[in-house]
Design brief:
Structural class: mainly beta
Order of helices and strands: HEEEEEHEEEEEEE
Largest sheet: 5 strands, antiparallel
Helix content: under 10%
Number of domains: 2
Number of helices: 2
Strand order of the largest sheet: 4-1-2-3-5
Radius of gyration: 30 Å
Shape: elongated
Amino acid sequence: MPENQPNWSVADAINSDSLFTVYGVPIKDPALGEFRGVSPSLKNLAYIKAYAIGEFCHRLTRPILMLVPGPGQDPKDDKCAKPPERKWEIVPSDRTVVLAPTIGNFSDLLEEAATRGIDGGIRLENPRIQDGKACVDVHIWASIEIFGAKVGFDERFPICVPLEGCRTVWDIGWASLEVCFRAPNQLCAKLCIGKWGLSKCWDYCVSLPIPAPAVSGSCGCTNK
């Protein structure tokens, strides 16, 4: 790098309004609808595999689908491109849409899409029989975030339930915790949350220690 030239990071370059270049393969006739908030010039979909800022070229480890302006240009002798890729000069401040392809079965991918924006979990610790009840220390946490709105909690507390059936032991309207005793010695909890059309549940089970039976009187044994 020439002396007295400022050192720019990738973030500095992307945040500037100077052009940079993306490289990829156009996707023909994707039958796309309109995306809200996207720059109006971005109407074509391409499978982007690299980008360049000045002399800096970076190949993506995981290609992405991106809306780009037009069908792209022939990169000719551009060393950052690999056949049959084309290139697009992009203004970094323009708003686009990026899709990262994920491979999986239909049920898993649909569930992931339906619960995006939800995080949470449940842990049961120190299971015990106490005063004839099943007891455990509970740790529950969750958050829902969508369109800038967010709610959440992180709670720890002990609970004790009878050695039969199910009980709702915690409820805040959009989230609740149900605990069930399952014979002979299992305690299970189910945390469910739901708000703004998003919902998800988590399950967790632990085994309770079974007290040793009490021994009274003589064993009836004699030494010979």
